[in-house]
Design a protein that fits this description.
Blueprint (H helix, E strand, L loop, with lengths): L1 E2 L34 H5 L2 H16 L1 H12 L6 H4 E4 L7 E4 L4 E5 L6 H20 L8 H14 L5 H6 L8 H17 L4 H16 L12 H19 L2
Parallel strand pairs: 2-4
Antiparallel strand pairs: 1-3, 3-4
């Protein structure tokens, strides 16, 4: 399970402790429960709100629209009912990508604003895009996980100036890179029982290559306006190639 946006990831495994890694599934308890009927789920305000916000994101958010189009062109068409699931989660996470089922989990009890939903869906769709285009070993290769977490933090809007100010984190010189690195490490620690040193080493070893991998955006989208321009450019790629 690949961790989405969260504020307080659990501590890493203590030295000397022997404990089987659950790959972060403890943060998503509804993953192991029998699915509720549509009628039962429809009675819960959290679930209804989550579904409404999800539809709004998929229909209007340029980050999500670009990623959905890119995945479709890569042969991995995303379907709302199949590939998204609104569930209750641990209090420290907002979403996750379940590589075992190719499904994005949205934490209906923790996502309360449309802007937050936009960011979480984008973050998880980047993981889904990486899962589609590459042979990512999510469960055994921490460098693969680190690379996707770097890309998700870099391209999803997680580290915009506005979001960092809201977290009371300030800085000018290379602040974006610092934010991306920190959030990638935090995400790894949330879903893998590894030490902080191991997570930081994995992030450091792949940082330059993965930070500079801007597919499918072609640029770092620091705002919705940037994302709209990236989406237009992506759509025009095929038109250019078709005329060659």
């Amino acid at each position: 399970m690949e961790h989405g946006e969260g504020d307080s990831p659990p501590a890493a495994e203590k030295k000397g402790a022997v404990e089987e890694d659950d790959f972060g599934y403890r943060l998503f308890p509804d993953r192991n429960k029998k699915p509720q009927s549509f009628l039962v789920r429809s009675l819960f305000t959290f679930h209804n709100r989550c579904q409404v916000m999800l539809r709004m994101t998929l229909e209007t958010n340029p980050y999500a629209q670009l990623l959905l189009e890119a995945m479709k062109q890569s042969g991995c068409t995303v379907f709302n009912d199949r590939h998204f699931s609104c569930e209750n989660c641990d209090g420290c996470v907002s979403g996750g990508f379940d590589a075992a089922t190719s499904q994005i989990v949205l934490c209906q009890n923790n996502i309360r604003q449309q802007s937050h939903m936009n960011r979480v869906v984008t973050h998880e769709l980047i993981h889904a895009f990486d899962h589609c285009r590459a042979h990512v070993d999510w469960f055994k290769n921490v460098k693969h996980l680190a690379c996707s977490e770097i890309r998700a933090a870099n391209l999803s809007g997680d580290c915009t100036l506005i979001n960092e100010i809201a977290r009371f984190k300030f800085g000018l010189k290379r602040h974006h890179q610092t934010c991306v690195r920190d959030r990638a490490v935090r995400s790894i620690l949330a879903v893998r029982k590894v030490s902080k040193e191991t997570a930081e080493k994995a992030v450091d070893e792949v940082f330059d290559a993965c930070f500079n991998d801007l597919e499918p955006f072609g640029r770092i989208p620091h705002s919705k306006a940037d994302a709209r321009r990236a989406y237009r450019d992506f759509q025009n790629r095929d038109r250019y190639n078709a005329n060659l």
